[in-house]
Each structure stands twice: as C-alpha cells, then as structure tokens.
From TrEMBL:
Family: Belongs to the NusA family.
Annotated protein name in UniProt: Transcription termination/antitermination protein NusA
Entry keyword set: Cytoplasm, Elongation factor, Protein biosynthesis, RNA-binding, Transcription, Transcription antitermination, Transcription regulation, Transcription termination
Gene Ontology terms: cellular component: cytosol
Compartments reported by the entry: Cytoplasm
Its job: Participates in both transcription termination and antitermination.
An individual GO BP term: DNA-templated transcription termination
Name of the encoding gene: nusA
Organism this protein belongs to: Salegentibacter mishustinae
C-alpha cells in the first residue's frame, strides 16, 4: 500500500486541474523514470506497471545473478548471496526481479518527484489550454476583469484562464472596472516558455464582423455575406455586405428598422459610427457607395494604378472627407483605391504638389491624406478644422496658408 498512499499524496491536487486518472498515471510513469535514471544512471532495466483503475503503479528492477565478488554494475547485476535473500533457490545467470518501493528512493527524491509531477501536470494543462484557445482564434470570447494595469487589462474566464487585453487592442473610449465582463475577439495565442499567452482584441475588424454574425440572423445563416470590414476603432467603420438572394436587402437587414439591429453593435463598440454599404464588383459604383454620405458628381478611375479622382460639389467635400479624414481614408481602404477629391466648378485652382519648393513634401502628404490636394481646398477650411483634421502643428498650418494666399493674391 506504500506506493498507493504516496501516489495519492502526489496527485491530491489533480481534481483542480481537471486531469483524468489515465493521463495522470502516464505522467507519473514519465516522472518516475526520470527519477530512476537520476538515482541509478539508467532506467532500461526497470519495469513500471501502471494500474490506472486502482490508482497504483509498481516498479520492478531486473538484474542478473553473478557469483559473489564479481558484481561490476550494481544496477544491472546482483551477487548470488543477495539474490538468495530474495529467493533461496536462485542460481548464477538467472534473472532477478525485485520490487522497488517509492520510499526506498529517499525523502529528497520523493520531494523532487512531487515537484516534477506538479511541473509536468502544469505543462500538460498549459498545452491543453493552448490547443483549446488556438481553435478559438478569430472567435468572440467574454471574460471578467481581474486586474487593471497601465498597458493591459488582465481578464479571467470561468475556468480561471488568464487572458490579456492590451491597451492598443482597447477602443479609446473603453473604461472597465474590476468584475466587469469584457467581450472581444481571441486575436492570438502563443506559448511563452510553457505558459500560453492569450490576447483579446476589441479593435480588430474581425471583431466587428463576428458581432454582425452574432446579432444579425441572416449573416449567421450565410444569407448575407460580409465582403470587407475597415475600422477606426471607436470612431467609424465601413462594412461591405452582399447576398445571393435578390429578395433580401442586405443593408436594410443589417441595419434593421430605425437602426434596431445595429444599435447593440454600435453600443458595444463605444458608439462607433458604422456605415453598411452594398458590395459590388463595379469599382466606380463601389467607390460612390463607400464615400457615402457624400454625393458624387463624377469619378475618373485609373484601374492599373488603383487611383480615383472624384468630383464633388463644394458643399459635399467635407462630407466625403469626414471628421478627422476618417470617411475618405476608410473608403480608400474598403475599395483598395487611393481617392483624390476635387471640387466641381472651382477654377484656377492649383495642386498642392506645385508648391513643393516652399512646402515640405511630408506636409503636402498630410494634407492629401485627409483629401486636401489643392490650394483652394485648404484655404476654404477654417484654421480650427485644419488643426483637427491633420496631425500638423498650428504654426505649420499658418505658414502653409500664408504661402497659398500669396499665390492667389499675385
């Protein structure tokens, strides 16, 4: 019973780790073989018999009987006198099997065994956690706030698994307290050492896509497909949807009556403004829809270089650009085109790149990034709007405005 009692003491914590007895016994055999190898130099001549039903295992040491005084390898050989203490009728050349009790390994070895067993079970547990969450990559997951750090929030799920929500994967308006439930997407799972690191994200475009699947039955059933999703987390998103069923209005089905269906998604994302548009293979029409709510007068496409020159009435330009330049930037990401905006009916305008001698290229690119490609498109904006739209300093903007005004005053 000595072995059973010791093994039960080793494995008393197994229930907390949800490890089955058969797996535990396999780990035990591995651990004991390591201990035998450390004590005797090798374990080839040991038989370990596992009895998972009884929760027991037996260790037998096999040696060859040699004449007294001729023992060269005590692990592999046993003297005739010692062998006959086990069985009085043993003869030289016969095999002797002797049971090894765990207590015979010594107190230090047993403590080391226990520590090694704990380590092996944790390793087994971590491997299972890694495999489980690896299969959940790209899926929505909910966990509870356990600890709030400067660069990340540590979450725990119902099984006690630790999940990390980094600061840069949080929506800027997110604010969580300990005990709050947090929903996100399992973005990645990595093994660092033997411990799995599970990263949750609320900013990934796929999170928005999965929320659509969760909240809109037609998307979940596959009647409506999501072709593309682009986001500025917490600010604005554009979702292109399509359907093979002509009887379904995919945009209407996603938005719902008075926005009823999309409302819960918007709320989950910190009131992120979501534009749902019909997908089409007609690039010109796709860009027109992507720049909504602006109404476009005409479009000139360069399909080879993936650029689009869009003509709008002056009052529509700010709608096309959007707050912070988000609308035009997301439309470009959604369609794959670099979109340049031009005002209809504006004469004697000059492209900003013509001022490269006086204005640095990186400044011109920053204005172009928010759809301001010409001198008049910049001059028509208020100074406060230019500061808000771009990442430029007020002094830099004033200098640009001064240069442009001088051009038109000449």
């Amino acid at each position: 019973m000595e072995n059973i009692a010791l093994i039960e003491s080793f494995s008393e914590f197994k229930d907390d780790k949800l490890i089955d007895r058969v797996t535990l016994m396999a780990i035990l055999e591995d651990v004991f073989r390591s201990a035998l190898k450390k004590k005797y130099g090798e374990d080839d001549n040991f038989d370990i018999i596992v009895n998972p039903d009884k929760g027991d295992l037996e260790i037998w040491r096999n040696r060859v009987v040699v004449a007294d005084g001729e023992v060269e390898d005590p692990n592999q050989e046993i003297s005739l006198a010692e062998a006959r203490k086990i069985e009085p009728d043993f003869e030289v050349g016969e095999d002797v099997s002797e049971e090894v009790k765990l207590v015979d390994l010594g107190r230090r070895a047993i403590l080391a065994l226990r520590q090694n067993l704990i380590s092996k079970i944790h390793e087994h547990d971590n491997t299972n956690i890694f495999k489980h969450f690896k299969e959940l990559e790209g899926e929505i997951y909910t966990a509870e706030v356990h600890h709030i750090r400067h660069r990340a929030i540590i979450l725990l799920d119902d099984e006690g698994n630790e999940i990390v929500l980094p600061k840069d994967r949080q929506i800027p308006s997110d604010f969580f307290r300990k005990g709050d439930n947090v929903k996100g997407i399992i973005e990645s799972v990595e093994l660092k050492g033997n411990k799995p690191t599970i990263i949750l994200s609320r900013t990934a475009p796929v999170f928005l896509e999965k929320l659509f699947e969760q909240e809109i039955p037609e998307v979940f059933d596959g009647l409506i497909t999501i072709q593309n999703v682009v986001r500025v987390p917490g600010e604005k998103a554009k979702v292109a949807v399509d359907t093979y069923d002509d009887r379904i209005d995919p945009v209407g089905a996603c938005v719902g009556m008075k926005g009823s269906r999309i409302h819960s998604i918007v709320r989950e994302l910190g009131n992120e403004n979501i534009d749902v548009i019909n997908f089409t293979n007609n690039d010109q029409l796709y860009i027109t829809r992507a720049l909504s709510p602006a109404k476009i007068t005409s479009i000139k496409l360069d399909e080879e270089n993936k650029t689009a020159e869009v003509m709008l009435k002056p009052e529509e330009v700010s709608k096309a650009i959007g707050r912070g330049g988000h609308n035009i930037r997301l439309a470009g990401q959604l369609t794959g085109y670099e979109i340049d905006v031009f005002r209809e009916g504006v004469e004697e305008d000059v492209e900003l790149k013509e001022f490269s001698d006086e204005i640095e290229d990186w400044v011109i690119k920053e204005f172009s990034r928010v759809g301001l490609d010409t001198a008049k498109s910049v001059l028509e904006q208020e100074l406060e709007d230019l500061i808000r739209l771009t990442d430029l300093e007020e002094e830099t903007i004033r200098e640009v405005v001064k240069v442009l005004k001088e051009e038109f005053e000449e």
